[in-house]
């Protein structure tokens, strides 16, 4: 298999771009606050997206990650990942406000990326709930690893809409203020919006173009619980399988991993499932486990891409951010999670996401020289 | 890149079917199936599913049944790749209706659960013990072979030993948008096939499916859509039977 390198990344979150978001996380800042978008509640929204016209917020969100993205070769394969794309357009149409309903379909996101970046190849629009972009990244990495592509661009995005907010509210899955991942008093998730653009290249392309790369995706795994549609498997079976696949493909053992960037939604069952799975795979050696959702909210289909990008920042900084919102770690997570940033003793981070339908995905990220 | 096609199932305007049963090409008029048409045993969740999930699960279940995997609940590393054009847009519209009709006070949690197009993959996975990768690919045309192509890559790359692959599309809801209205006469239905990297001892394939230059081929023949794939497999199977007799 060919090695898979990350050449460029951009993100947009409630805390800003990649540099701003990472710095904000290290400070313990949060982007979660009152929503100013025609419905009330709390979420991690991006002020620039609040526009009262007939376009979807996702247009602006995409521009935030693509506007200064370096030009790509035309043979770059585009991947798009999202749960609901521009579903706010559907809301507008149903209210009688003129809007392009095609924005609400993920294939629109893919075609927009293709046009915006002038790419020739068709690409894929992937949807797998909250693991959408993790699975898209795994799939994109395989295109490079198996020699089917030299260059791949993964773009993921999801916005905070009334549709999604009131949906999670109806499930009573939202924390009333801000989510507290892995906290003993956690009571639900907070929504967020965000996007990421991640450019993967082959070793040959790196050599030909003498470009510098910032990370390597060395392993990936995807597995389904096959237990329940909305609830995670209590024993973490799907996540354990995904983690073991990812480590095995990366030729790594559990002891090689410096930190785990968890899904960490702040819901009772998700966080408990994750800690169960991490202990099963990594044993009792305490290593940093952290979640950024207490600061950025749950960005749904974009979560995996945003979190992979932040993991790469951590690899370079040698430090992982605190779990914002964490005050009193639940017993099972004590010694793993922290409300302070933690140093990385090994420059390998595993990042994981899980979603409705029982799907789980994991990526192994490391510095290219490792 | 190739795999053995060992099962075929569908739900079209004439109802569910599998294998060598008469395949009615997808039409406009599509009805969600009853539980009895899809699953042998009582299933309390089936009645609560949205139409998109029922249709997708029906075709998936029929293809597994055709491959001799009906009722298999031992977990095994098989995945699901589904292509769709409109996904669960009808459920999205129904859910938003509950938001707007109640001024946001009582949106339906039940409907919201099915506003992700991959939900029926989870419904299929838990009933048949499929623990491999599962995901939806969004395409701009109905009955796309995108799921089959992706599944062949999954098998080739060692992501799964078996893949359920196909497409699922409902007619989009009418009366809310002119573009959606213009698509309401496009064919709707679900078609799934079982693809295996290596044959199980008991399984007998309909065909060897190959991916060459981004085209799906059965022997020397190129197929273009999921319904075309099923029909061509039936032609192949019939010609083999005729030759044997």
Characteristic key phrases:
heterodimer, A: 370 residues, alpha/beta, ten-stranded mixed sheet, globular, B: 245 residues, alpha+beta, Peroxisomal Thiolase, Chain A, domain 1, nine-stranded mixed sheet, 8 helices, Beta-ketoacyl synthase (chain B), Thiolase-like (chain B), Ketoacyl_synth_N (chain B), acyltransferase activity (chain B)
General description of the model:
The complex is a heterodimer of chains A (370) and B (245). With 370 residues, chain A is of the alpha/beta class. Chain A is built from eleven helices and 15 strands. In chain A, helix 1 (18-27) packs across helix 11 (303-317), helix 5 packs across helix 11 and helix 8 crosses helix 9 (268-282). The longest helix of chain A has 15 residues, at 268-282. With 245 residues, chain B is α+β, with helices and mostly antiparallel strands. Chain B has a single domain (2-243), classed as Thiolase/Chalcone synthase (Peroxisomal Thiolase, Chain A, domain 1, 3-Layer(aba) Sandwich). In chain B, strand 8 and strand 9 form a beta hairpin. The longest helix of chain B is centred in the C-terminal third of the chain and has 19 residues, at 226-244. Chain B: InterPro entries: Ketoacyl_synth_N, Thiolase-like. Chain B: Residues 42-170 form the Beta-ketoacyl synthase-like N-terminal domain.
């Amino acid at each position: 298999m060919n090695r898979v390198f990350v050449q460029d990344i951009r993100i947009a979150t409630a805390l800003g771009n990649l540099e701003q978001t990472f710095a904000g996380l290290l400070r313990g800042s949060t982007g979660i606050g009152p929503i100013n978008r025609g419905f009330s509640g709390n979420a991690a929204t991006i002020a620039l997206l609040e526009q009262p016209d007939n376009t979807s917020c996702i247009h602006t969100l995409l521009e935030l990650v693509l506007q200064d993205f370096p030009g790509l070769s035309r043979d770059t394969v585009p991947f798009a990942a999202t749960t609901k794309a521009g579903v706010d357009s559907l809301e507008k149409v149903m209210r009688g406000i003129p809007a392009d309903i095609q924005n609400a379909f993920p294939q629109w996101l893919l075609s927009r990326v293709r046009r915006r970046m002038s790419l020739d190849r068709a690409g894929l629009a992937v949807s797998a709930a909250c693991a959408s972009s993790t699975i898209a990244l795994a799939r994109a990495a395989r295109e490079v690893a198996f020699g089917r592509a030299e260059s791949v661009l993964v773009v993921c995005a999801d916005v905070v809409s009334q549709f999604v907010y009131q949906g999670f509210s109806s499930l009573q899955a939202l924390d009333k203020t801000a989510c507290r991942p892995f906290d003993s008093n956690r009571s639900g998730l907070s929504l967020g919006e965000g996007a990421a653009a991640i450019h993967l290249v082959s070793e040959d392309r790196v050599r030909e173009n003498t470009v510098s790369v910032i990370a390597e995706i060395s392993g990936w795994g995807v597995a389904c619980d096959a237990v329940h549609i909305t609830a995670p498997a209590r024993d973490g079976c799907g996540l354990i399988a995904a983690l073991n696949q990812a480590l095995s493909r990366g030729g790594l053992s559990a002891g090689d991993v410096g930190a785990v960037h968890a899904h960490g939604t702040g819901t009772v069952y998700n966080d408990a499932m994750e800690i169960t799975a991490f202990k099963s795979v990594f044993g009792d050696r305490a290593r940093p486990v952290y979640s950024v959702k207490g600061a950025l909210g749950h960005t749904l289909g974009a979560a995996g891409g945003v979190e992979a990008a932040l993991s790469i920042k951590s690899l370079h900084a040698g430090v992982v951010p605190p779990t914002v919102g964490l005050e009193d770690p639940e017993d099972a997570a004590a010694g793993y999670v922290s409300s302070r940033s933690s140093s990385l003793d090994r420059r390998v981070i595993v990042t994981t996401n899980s979603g409705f339908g029982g799907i789980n995905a994991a990526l192994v990220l490391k510095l290219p020289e490792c | 890149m190739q795999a053995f096609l060992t099962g075929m199932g569908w739900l079209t305007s004439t109802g569910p079917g599998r294998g060598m049963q008469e395949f009615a090409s997808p039409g406009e008029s599509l009805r969600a199936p009853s539980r009895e048409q899809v699953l042998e045993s009582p299933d309390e969740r089936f009645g609560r599913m949205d139409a998109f999930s029922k249709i997708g699960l029906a075709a998936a279940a029929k293809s597994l049944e055709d491959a001799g995997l009906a009722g298999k609940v031992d977990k095994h590393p098989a995945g699901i790749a589904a292509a769709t054009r409109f996904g669960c847009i009808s459920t999205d519209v129904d859910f938003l209706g509950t938001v707007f009709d109640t001024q946001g006070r009582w949106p339906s949690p039940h409907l919201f659960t099915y506003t992700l197009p991959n939900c029926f993959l989870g419904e299929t996975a838990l009933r048949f013990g499929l623990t491999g990768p599962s995901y939806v690919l969004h395409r701009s045309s109905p009955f796309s072979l995108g799921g089959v192509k992706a599944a062949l890559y999954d098998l080739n790359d060692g992501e799964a030993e078996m893949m359920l692959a196909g497409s699922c599309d409902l007619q989009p809801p009418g009366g809310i948008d002119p573009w959606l209205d213009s698509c309401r006469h496009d064919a709707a239905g679900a078609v799934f096939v079982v693809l295996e990297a290596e044959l199980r001892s008991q399984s007998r394939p309909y065909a060897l499916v190959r991916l060459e230059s981004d085209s799906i081929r059965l022997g020397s023949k190129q197929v273009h859509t999921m319904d075309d794939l099923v029909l061509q497999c039936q032609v192949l199977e019939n010609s083999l039977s005729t030759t044997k007799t």
